[in-house]
Amino acid sequence: xxxxxxxxxxxxxxxxxxxxxxxxxxxxxxxxxxxxxxxxxxxxxxxxxxxxxxxxxxxxxxxxxxxxxxxxxxxxxxxxxxxxxxxxxxxxxxxxxxxxxxxxxxxxxxxxxxxxxxxxxxxxxxxxxxxxxxxxxxxxxxxxxxxxxxxxxxxxxxxxxxxxxxxxxxxxxxxxxxxxxxxxxxxxxxxxx
Length: 193
Fold this sequence. Notes:
Elements: H1 2-12, H2 16-52, H3 58-87, H4 98-112, E1 116-128, E2 131-142, H5 144-157, E3 162-170, E4 177-188
Antiparallel strand pairs: 1-2, 2-4, 3-4
């Protein structure tokens, strides 16, 4: 997570022109890799078959096309899995329901760890690279280790929710600690059609 934060800071410091150049480079590398992995190999095998035997059978071509189709299906499954790892339960959620979903999940997870959720205040939103960042100011109380487990569960269940800032204050005679945490949620920017 720290690595992504440093990358986001460095990219955020770039001018719009520099960001576009970096984005163009990333797209060019992804396109080249896609061609090299998905198209070039099967195409070279088909060309080799044709050179070996000019009357390449329809069956061999069908077999190669079937293998290529299977590779495409497998690649699509990997893309979906990567998207789920990046965006977790928020991946398919409409943007307008994100805030209520996050608050509901914070409350449910708090109950599992005997953490009292004192308040959740949605904060400002801003655009960061090609993502919309939504801030949530959260206050909770409980025992230190319960709050620690609660934060770990948040990281798993509500990814890509990340902790931007936090503070712990002992509750004195009441026991336990009060946690103030600033969480940031990231979603790909929705482009108007």
